[in-house]
Design goal:
heterotrimer; A alpha/beta (about 375); B alpha+beta (about 90); C alpha/beta (about 300); A: Rossmann fold; Rossmann fold; 7-stranded mixed beta sheet; 6-stranded mixed beta sheet; 13 helices; globular; B: about 90 residues; alpha+beta; two-stranded antiparallel sheet; two-stranded antiparallel ribbon
């Protein structure tokens, strides 16, 4: 059913429909509306879950670790500083192979303090061993929660997921969203049934330590499970499409790539702006296309290669990053370059939109001009006084 | 063979580690002196002193590290520590 | 109730604790008292390490370790999950003094304030033993550790032990107790009582560490007993914030306890430090006063 609703509320509703049994979260801007809505659902009997009001984000995710190990579907949500505080638990939850799903309302990291959007928070945890989904709009932000639970809990995967969507830009924006019904979601998402749980009837030790004789193998298996998730995502996406019509089976999405000479690569809500500007540029005769990355972990190297490496029409690639690995480049650019190793197509990186700086259509057009001129690997849109 | 997902294990495997090999001094139990109070069993950090059907306490030398708590705490001084002969 | 599990061993032989380890005995006694219908949550530390190198777990009950500082948050999640599933297992946290007095304080405070139903056992060996005997908030006054070494300008750790039982009682914990492995029946009774009291309960058990304190392994129980007999380890119970039971003793001078351990050797050699010993005696005297430790002879 189509509803015009705030992004956070749409996400909270989707989470409710996934029937998490334990919700544990700590308020932080711009995630608050999600956890407030979930608390309200619990208080009014619309969600049959234990809601733990923890004292900080570190404990929020730690409680999810316990609840998930004990056999419950668990949920948390955070952003920015909160996610940074969870750093240690993120690696732990993934290594323990607990399929927790957590929404990230993407926000910049301090210092300087900023409550506004970029993707530095979740990108900084790219090595934590979680799946990372990035939504372009609120429809996708809600749908990716169903997909995330389905994929995370798949026995081939058993890994936690971030569902990332831009703070404020999506979380606080009203858009029409097609909400599924409980019946729909129950059809798609089976009851949580992990292979093992903390249970006195069948004691298992969770979170043992690995000596040097075993640690390497555990990391290998973790990496393999994350890579195997590619197939599971494809399958879960196809089934979702068959039931509800929206297809998330691909980890990347192409927009007007067929004959594109300039390919923009980006993630998140900025892609809406990019698509509009592509339409305008094409009307002016410029062959520009977009390759949107929906799943950043596992990284869709093969999909990127498939789209670009064999295409002779591609003359340049502009990777837009709302994050930076300081002292190097944007994370997406680094990984796109790695995927395209051996190709002669130049890949230019643009760091933009950090800390909530607005990115408009004219900015995208300017970036395309820069790429055409062979100018890149730079911050875009800096104030004049720092130049 | 794949490892247990998430570094987990079911009970039982600790017993593969025969800590009796650490022992330097070995507790020798004098069952004549023993009053069967069970203090040795209660205080053994290894949990390796077992009571047989007659109520006699027998150490399992596969695991006994020879710490000597049983000998020290035995109220009847029925346990003596002897240098291990290897 | 302790009787029913007297024979069952839920903490397996083959673990890698030092011979004479007080903490490993505590693990045995806690699992005996708690029984098989228990989920144990461990914090990182000696006990976690000596009992669970993959795949050799010593735990015959369901067990989980996540991190150093989050055992009480993990237990909160487990409790919520069990509640939702309608399950009745008891939850017992086993954490050392570093995980409890220092790094885990925020998680502990949050979990106790929320009132989850679990029992938190702190096995207190009075320093970070797993990393090689560094001082913690539980290290007693003047104990020499690797980060509070006694030297020409120092008598060792310069702060008294943090009063964790009082802190948790102030959180509204319905049951708080101290115990000692030297009195296993008393310890097990306290564990049972804590487990059977709804809400977050705390038991702090004194577990001498032969390696960290510097004594022979067979002395573990004798030294734990001396801590109580000198008044340096008051053994008591608090119900709803009020002390309800105290182990009374005919107190011995603190030197009888201090002399047994290398961590206090600098108080006696090369020469006896009377002022420092008097300061430690004053700590014991204050404990005696506060908890009423002294057995009063009838003559008075």
């Amino acid at each position: 059913m189509m509803e015009i609703t705030e992004g956070s509320h749409a996400v909270a509703e989707a989470v409710r429909l996934c029937r998490p049994q334990v919700v544990s979260a700590y308020p932080i801007t711009p995630q608050t509306h999600i956890v407030e809505a979930l608390a309200d659902f619990v208080a009014n009997g619309k969600l049959d879950a234990e809601y733990i009001n923890v004292e900080n984000e570190f404990s929020a995710l730690s409680a999810c670790v316990g609840a998930s190990a004990a056999g419950s579907r668990t949920y948390s949500a955070t952003t920015s500083q909160g996610l940074a505080l969870m750093f240690e638990v993120c690696f732990n939850a993934a290594g323990m192979r607990l399929p927790i799903v957590m929404s990230i309302a993407n926000r910049a990291l301090g210092a300087p303090l900023s409550i506004w959007n970029d993707m530095q928070d979740s990108i900084s945890l790219r090595d934590a061993g979680w799946l990372q989904f990035y939504a372009e709009d609120n429809q996708e932000a809600t749908d990716l929660h169903y997909i995330a639970y389905r994929v995370s809990e798949d026995r081939k995967v058993l890994l936690p997921s971030f569902v990332c969507f831009d703070g404020f830009i999506l979380s606080h924006t009203y858009e029409p969203v097609d909400m599924l019904t409980q019946e729909d979601v129950d059809k798609y998402l089976p009851k949580f049934n992990p292979p093992e749980r903390l249970d006195a009837a069948d004691p298992v030790s969770f979170g043992m330590y690995a000596t040097p004789e075993y640690y390497l193998e555990f990391r290998y298996e973790h990496d393999k499970a994350l890579k195997d998730a590619r197939e599971v995502i494809a399958k879960a996406g196809k089934e979702f499409a068959a039931l509800f019509g929206r297809d998330y089976s691909a980890m990347v999405e192409g927009y007007k790539l067929e004959d594109a000479e300039t390919v923009i690569v980006a993630m998140g809500s900025i892609c809406g702006t990019i698509k509009d500007s592509i339409d305008e540029m094409r009307a002016e005769g410029k062959k520009v296309g977009l390759l949107r990355i929906r799943v950043f972990r596992p990284f869709p190297s093969e999909d990127i290669t498939k789209f670009i490496k064999s295409a002779t029409h591609v003359k340049r690639i502009a990777v837009l990053d709302k994050n930076i690995s300081l002292g190097a480049k944007g994370a997406t650019a680094i990984e796109v370059k790695d995927a395209l190793y051996g190709s002669t197509v130049p890949v230019w990186n643009y760091i933009l939109g950090l800390g909530g700086r607005d990115v408009r259509k004219k900015d995208i057009k300017e970036i395309v001009v820069l790429a055409e001129k062979g100018q890149g690997d730079q911050f875009y849109g800096l104030r004049k006084e720092v130049l | 063979m794949a490892l247990a997902v998430g570094c987990r294990a079911r009970p039982g495997k600790a017993r593969d580690n025969k800590t009796g090999s650490w022992r330097v001094f070995k507790p020798i139990f004098d069952h004549e002196k023993c009053s069967k109070c069970g203090m040795c069993q209660t205080l053994c950090p290894e949990g390796c002193i077992h009571e047989d059907t007659e109520g006699t306490f027998i150490p399992d030398y596969n695991y006994c590290k020879g710490c000597g708590i049983c000998a020290e705490e035995c109220p009847k001084e029925a346990i003596t520590m002897k240098q291990e002969e290897k | 109730m302790a009787e029913k599990c007297k024979a069952c061993e839920l903490f397996d032989s083959g673990h890698r604790a030092c011979g004479g380890c007080g903490a490993s005995l505590a693990a045995r006694l806690v699992t005996k008292a708690a029984g098989a219908n228990t989920i144990v949550v461990s914090a990182t530390g000696c006990m976690e390490v000596f009992s669970t190198p993959y795949p050799e777990t010593a735990w015959k009950v369901p067990w989980i370790h996540s991190l150093f500082e989050n055992a009480s948050a993990v237990a909160s999640g487990i409790e919520a999950s069990l509640k939702k599933q309608g399950r009745k297992e008891k939850i017992v946290i086993m954490a050392g003094d570093g995980a409890t007095f220092d790094i885990g304080m925020i998680c502990i405070s949050g979990a106790f304030e929320r009132g989850h139903d679990f029992t938190y056992i702190c096995y207190d060996n009075e320093a970070y033993m797993n990393t090689g005997i560094q001082r913690s908030g539980a290290t007693p006054y003047d104990a020499s550790t690797t980060t509070s070494p006694a030297g020409s300008k120092s008598f060792g750790n310069q702060r008294p032990k943090k009063d964790m039982p009082a802190i948790l009682a102030a959180h509204g914990a319905p049951y708080v107790a101290t115990a000692s492995i030297a009195y296993p029946a008393d310890f097990m009774q306290k564990v049972e009582k804590a487990i059977n009291t709804p809400g977050p309960c705390y038991v702090q058990v004194h577990t001498p560490c032969c390696t960290g304190w510097g004594f022979e392994g067979e002395q573990t129980i004798a030294i734990a007993k001396l801590a109580i007999e000198t008044g340096l380890w008051p053994n008591f119970e608090m119900v709803d914030g009020k002390v309800t039971k105290v182990k009374k003793v005919v107190r011995k001078p603190v030197t009888e306890y201090l002399k047994t351990q290398k961590r206090f050797r600098h108080l006696f050699k090369p020469k006896q430090q009377d002022a420092e010993i008097a300061a430690i005696q004053a700590i014991a005297d204050r404990n005696a006063e506060k908890y009423g430790l002294d057995i009063k002879l009838k003559k008075e």
